[in-house]
Fold this protein.
Amino acid sequence: MATIALDAMGGDHGPSAAVSAAARISLERDVGVLLVGDQAAIDEALRRTRYDAAFLSIHHAPQAIGMGESPREAIQAKPEASLLVGARLVSQGHADALVSAGNTGAAVLACAKYFEKLPGVPRTALAAVFPTEQRRGRHDDPFSLILDVGATLEVGADALVAFAHMGSAYASRISRNANPRVALLSNGSEDYKGTAAIKEANQRLRGDGRLNFIGNIEGVDLPRGKADVVITGGFVGNVVLKMLEGISETVVDIARYAYRHKLAWRAGLFMLRGGILQLKQLTDWQQYGGAPILGFDHLFIKAHGRSGDRAIGNAIKVANKAVKSGLCEEIAAHLAE
Amino acid sequence: MSAPHIYRWDLDKTYLQTDFDSISSLIRIAFQRAADKTNVPGSAELLRLLRAESAGRALIYFISGSPAQMRSVLAEKLRLDGIHYDGFILKEQLRNLLRGRFRALRDQVGYKLPALLNARLDAPEGSEETLFGDDAERDAFVYSLYGDLLAERVAPEVLDEVLELAAVYPDSREIIFTALDKLPPCDPVKRVIIHLDRKSPPIHFEAYGPRVVPVYNYFQAGLVLFADDRLRAEAVGRLGTTLVRRYEFTPRMLLRSFQDTLRRGVLDYEAAQRLGRQGVRSGIDAEVVRLFAQEAEEMNMVPVVQKAQHVPDYPALLRREQNRHKIEKQRRRRLQGRWL
């Protein structure tokens, strides 16, 4: 059984959301959770919660890194911060993966400090999923994977090729998609379009028989789900992801506005409620389970800073699934071939 | 020679894994054979160890809300588990039904309190007691009240108020007061162990003081009994081994359970260290002992200050429990409605 280290102090809601998530997961008796953070605060929250002691433990960490702190300075100044202690515990084998809703930059640096990059990985990547029209894999998964979404802003062809392998391994293990379609995000579907790095990566991936590379895709192809794994640099990836999140939130806001302002619109929305609920569920980021940082010898799942207990709980489940399916080993094998 | 120690056990959800939360499960239980009944992991091993550790001098009694008609099946189950017991009290549910005492079918205070007090009349003088129950009913409340009544820490008017609140039938009230009149003042209840079948939050039991210890599994109960000098380290090791070999526990799960007892102050550091020392001497798997010692060391915790035992405000506690029970019932009904 896997043990997932959870940074209890990270995120906008602090220990209450993390403890509540860990307690709920412990009742499912499928994975152990190691809560890392201020023991007194965690214990105080735990004694009011239903949990199973055989699936939950605490490691005291006296410091915490705030969401607004400068990652580099915080890492230097707070060596006993929960995020760093969590990463250290994973690297020492006390846990199999790390989950945090805390400061993203600090999380990447903490992983870089304690985890080893896998051979053949020039840059690590933060991956995220987004809902699409097409479904895929053994479980009819409605989500495509996009990476990188912010770990490295500018990347070369080497990194893009490595991202393609890491993303493909992730999709095959986590989405149970045996032959995921991998594509490069560009400003046109033709192979000659894009930056120099994209063009070179395209050429190299075309000649790589281990991947199901389908070429370049454009922004318009993202929500259609033309590719199962979308490869891009951290700068573009982050903009794309935030835009997709923004669109889904705006659609819901518009629907709310319509519901309030006209009786006819309200009646229309009421008749469409089944579809709207499905759409809302599909675009609900809390059920995605966080974004993995790929390329290290250990797994780290970054949950959204706003994550409540449900989102953190789902992040723990994804981490458990990744550990059980041997994701890091699969990525290492992909890159070693 | 000192008086024997008495262990009183509840059966359902404490010794046996019983699901009586729905009508269908109740019917299933009624027709279940002894061999089909399942133990709470480690409960049978713990009972056997308690008997063995006392060199046969411990007295073991069961007190259960199961109907008396199930006596033969339950006795057979205990025989299959190799449990030697000294007494077995079951509820006269059929008699309650025939006499129209419907309240008594579910009432715990009006059943267990007189049964415990009557049983105490036969207890050897000076014998101390460890009681086992669960969080599905009112075991913590009844056991705690029983202990404080024997020690004369609860005034008669408070008891009256409790019995009134619990709507206890007059004949049960009479049994309670008669038994109390006969019993000499004593303070035998040293420990109440509550198996958290429903995983109730530990805070629910804090009002009872440190004598009442909620445990998530019987390894934790073993640790508590070790701290109470009822079990040796070797027996705790055997209990852990049984849980790993027969009930899909892992050493890590035992370690987490151990850490939880330390954090909640159920097990103090002195006892944890003693466990390590004795464990090594008695030849428990040295790796496990080393892990436990390391865990206690690495936790780097501020030792938990043990609160002093006090007399709870029983009427207030009962009102709170009744209220909680009502809310839980409503929540379940709502959930059932949603499923329908």
